[in-house]
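User: Could you check the structure of this?
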Amino acid sequence: MPDLATIGYEGTTIDAVVATLRDAKIALLVDVRAVPQSRKPGFSKRQLAAALDEVGIAYVHLQALGTPKPGRDAVRAGHPERMEVIFREHMTSDRSQAELVQAKQLVRERPACLLCFERDHTTCHRSLVAEMIVAETGQPVVHLATP
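Assistant: Sure, the predicted structure tokens are below.
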């Protein structure tokens, strides 16, 4: 079974992220943002999917695996521990659980990477999503970072 990777795009460019994903031989990017829009050029859903498609990396957006607004606000305010409580509660919903099942299936099939904003995976919910996935799949998790 392939490793499960994660990456954040804070402080970097679309070209650097795509190059990092290619170097890591990622075949699928799983966007786990609640809102797949960005002020950073290239990271809004359509642009990101197009850039990945150009290099043969598939893209899927699983919105229900994103952090609700109060959780995102908590991280921005410097309280990732509050975000974790909010996110874990959010993950009890039927839709979130259904998308988690989908994510587990997708990442078993090919080398995949979870994408969100924060550069530091320890303050980002993508680490929690990765934990929830590997609790069942047993895959190793690799946290990628652009140079």
